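Workshop exercise sheet. Pairs work together: one partner reads the sequence aloud, the other fills in the structure field after running the prediction. Swap roles for the next sheet.
Pair: D.N. / O.F.
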Amino acid sequence: MSDTQQADPQWWRTAVIYQVYVRSFADGDGDGTGDLAGVRARLPYLRDLGVDAIWFTPWYVSPLADGGYDVADYRAIDPQFGTLADAERLIAEARDLGIRTIVDVVPNHVSAEHPWFRAALAAGPGSPERERFWFHPGRGADGAQIPTDWVSDFQGSTWTRTTDPDGTPGEWYLHLFTPEQPDLNWNHPDVRREHEDVLRFWFDRGAAGIRIDSAALLIKDPALPPVPEAPGPGEHPHVDRDEIHDVYRAWRAVADSYAEPRVLVGEVWLADRERFAHYLRPDEMHTAFNFDFMARPWSAKELRESIQTTLDAHAPVAAPPTWVLSNHDVTRPVTRYGREDSSFAFARKRAGTPTDLALGRRRARAAALLTAALPGALYVYQGDELGLPEVEDLPAEAVQDPMHARSGGVDPGRDGCRVPLPWHRTGTTYGFGPEGGLPAWLPQPAGWGDLSVDAQAADEASFLTLYRQVLATRRAEPDLHGPDLRWLTALGGAPLPDDVLAFARGDVVCVVNLGPEPLPLPVGAEVLLTSDATGDRLPPDTAAWLRP
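Structure field:
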């Protein structure tokens, strides 16, 4: 990163942000679990890849009931990852290499091991400690009926009943996710004050921003009504309540109070694009994840619709869109794009779904060029730059994701995209940890070394080489830094078929052939980059960047 980029307060508008799932990135001490020492050792790799920032999934003290999204202490690093001093060194060393750091905050809930919740259980019904959460006596004469019929995002009930000291059934508490993740009551001033203090704690240590987990879920209707069959805007009892925006306005004030303003990035799953854009008003979040694009199938019509809808939604609030192909919750692109149904939805995930990995690789390479050519910020999930597939044959006893258990085994869970990275061709963990250390916390498949960093680094046709070229070209081309995009219906004077996506960013043209037939390229056009080898025709499931 140049000195100008380092000092640019608008860096987040066009940044390339790399997601690190710490447990699976690199193991520095050989205990089988990724850690901050491992990340620090691999910072030069991320610099050479060409990223502007790293987003870390939660690295705090946690029982890991949900992969760290059950936080017990925001001001301490989980010992299996390192120490607070390690985190401070990592943030500083990354910045020295021109890489900013974004940390994860999970405001909807805490761990059941959090001191607040333990105090609430000990204090009993009616206590001030319980007012920070959603405790309820239950329905019916003896309180045996659950307070609501709300359904958990992880399937099953959203309420768990406590047991009083004398062994009798007690109050119920709300958890939109697992019972180990009790929901906070955001109507309580302690909750709001504590989270603003947490932001300052990490901003003071050099974090350039925060990513806000489940950002639309914080506020609940105190009446705890049923979920309407078709809730109107702001009518859902625990999703996208209008009062939520007061929280993020207060957070934005904290972020803007620094000499180098910090950045707020939201995880906002909302189908209503106008409501989505409300989170991106100038006094709230800076950006939010674009899940619609990630979930669309490999279809020119679907992808163009998603791109245009995204641009239209962001335009009224002048916020930059974000683009991402996967994350630590979603089936990896190489596997997903090789399926007959290449869209993504949690409700449709099933074990044993067939995939054509060769087809998926071609499409994932083309998708890399497509996303990197779009205006806004680009997110890359660790391992996607290596073309890693979803690991779908994990032994049943190795699966740890609660989504699998709470679905009764119907949902295969998310562990398949969290398998530790391969760094070397050989070794007991393919370089994930030091030789002689413990096995990786999730088993790595045979042949993982063939997809390793070492195996790909010098291969001109590899995924890794492609990603390095894409990110370097994106940075070098000024036309790819602005907000404008112009759709093309013809190329070199020839009309384009409906199954081809083409758009111009200044003088740079991105063409993606999603159809079954090769596409003639314009005579005399300068080919800046292609996702696979081409001649004068662009093969199916291939993308190119051109300068006509």
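Discussion prompt: The CA atoms of residues 521 and 535 lie 9 Å apart. What would you look at next?
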